[in-house]
Amino acid sequence: MAKNELNTREKRAMAAISTAAGNMLIVAADQRNGMKAVMTDGPDGAVTPAELAEAKADLVRYLGNEASAILLDPEVALPAIPDNGVISRDTALVVGMDASGFDEVDGLRFTRFSDGVTPQTVLDLGGDVAKMLWYMRADRQDADSRVAHEIRDLVTACEQAGLLLIVEILTYRLDGESEEEYAEKLPGLVAEAARISVECGAKVLKLQYPGSAAACAAVTDAAQGVPWAVLSAGVDHTTFIEQVRTAVANGASGAMAGRSLWKDSLSVSHEVRAGLLTSRALPRLRELEAAVDRI
Question: Buried b vs exposed e over 39-71: b needs ≥16 C-beta within 10 Å?
């Protein structure tokens, strides 16, 4: 029996964010500063809040509505996108609860929650599923650490609200740690973070690609039957497709892709953006769906 099994309502939510074949396929469009950074064709290089909001709406119109689900933020995208009828009735809405940036304490990173966003807020915004990001260094944090208690608390709050929570974990380099040292530790850090998160009650995980087929299998073992999706982490599309194929072949349950799909398809101009999302990003999504479903 899988650990932390989904209840009936959570199973319905899981189906909503999955393909017909039952694998997660979510377009991530909850970025704020990262999205602004690729919209550099404006007259002065600055992107206004209104321009960013319209870019997110176009991402839904021309890309997200072709996926099982779209991940959006409550700071810029919501509630305007569902209120204005932009999101398709067949596309599930995942609401990100994390704010941009992080706080640092004793060399460790801690996520910021978006102000005032609770499980009830997610439901009020029309969300089918919630997502929260935590940073974790599993070689310095365990199941009794601050981050673990935060995961437990939000898992419990979402369960009480009748809301499925996707637990996203990012590991990172410590100050003074070389790239080579970090790369060597990465597979174990991702697997141990999965184990700790499951111990804290996580029912769905969003994780970094841990580096190899064997590392993906180790993550699957650590997740103890809890489904996990691999995130794109800003890599290019070709690289991510191969990562997804390897991850799914070794136990992953899908993918959540953001910049790998759309980072070279955004523009301040609506007309240019619509054309690029349709001709460039959408074919990538189709290819990602085939990789997720192992077609």
Answer: beeeeeeebeeebbbbbbbbbbbbbbbbbbbbb
